[in-house]
């Protein structure tokens, strides 16, 4: 990333916040609890706010009570956060109701897509709008966000100002796909990196000669230009020639009252190449049992196509996630590979 990339994206975020959400200069009070060494925290929370002349309230380490106290005390009107934080408050509504959050114009979710049920419940409890955007470290990081006038919560929104996007065939990036079809998201704009440091081969795979970044994310775009992220290209499960997005199955599992968190990964299969397997962390009031595992299988498999059916459920104490809230599926994938290799 160059200085030009980072400044461009800070300008894009500041402009979008002013035009799309009415956050102007000193009126903008942003609460920052994300790590500032992460591009999400650095660009969205710090650089863009400072550039716009807004006020920044920094929380050194996330604490759920202090987070609410800071919003109330400093009349914060914008928060950029991640789904685990929003999900925590939804599960603790009585805590939310103790504080005055009327100054908040919106809470923005990033890093990982938010579950619609979680977002809607947060809005119901607080009256605060939840929206979400999208970006990558390779794009400084923001490329998409929902404007206030037309929020499609299941979408990450249309591209930012001065940003071009298209959906291309994952096997042939020169072929652009029409609206509604799932393919790889490609992005071009001033925030797109120049390449990976001293990794020319990987740079050549990610950047086309005419400046398009192949994100590695499978997505679709509607007629209005809104983008819907489906799954990471590398995390797709390939079963009998079909592709399965783990996030789709995880979303269904999380709707079950016993499930606290989960991760769906590919399990090697001699006949089908790969089949979906679910690792599940239960809520404290539920106990792992063969009967519950069978119940969860039926819960998911009755709602999906035959090739998407989960073949096994394994209970674990917790699901590993990154600081940004992303499920670290790689740990479970490696576990499955070791089982096969003996």
Can you put this structure into words, describing what you see?
With 342 residues, the chain is of the alpha/beta class. The chain folds into 3 domains: 3-132, Rossmann fold; 164-232, Luciferase, Domain 3 (Luciferase, domain 3), CATH 2.30.38.10; 236-341, GMP Synthetase, Chain A, domain 3 (2-Layer Sandwich), CATH 3.30.300.30. The chain is built from 10 helices and 16 strands. The protein has a 6-stranded mixed sheet, sandwiched between helices. The protein has a 5-stranded antiparallel sheet with strand order 8-7-9-10-11. Helix 1 (3-21) packs across helix 2. The termini are far apart.
Given helix and strand content, the structural type is alpha/beta
CATH architecture of the largest domain: 3-Layer(aba) Sandwich
| Approximate shape | globular
Characterize the largest beta sheet: strand count, sense, and whether it forms a barrel: 6 strands, mixed
* Rg (CA only): 21 Å
- Domain count, please report it: 3
- DSSP helix fraction: 25-40%
Low-confidence stretches: none
What is the total tally of β strands?
A: 16
- Along the chain, the helix and strand elements come as HEHEHEHHEHEEEEEHEEEEHEEHEH
Supply the number of helical segments. 10
The CATH class of the largest domain turns out to be Alpha Beta
Main sheet strand line-up: 2-1-3-4-5-6
Beginning-to-end CA distance, first to last residue: 42 Å
Oligomer class: single chain
Average of per-residue pLDDT values: 92
Strand content: 25-35%
CATH topology name of the largest domain, in short, is Rossmann fold
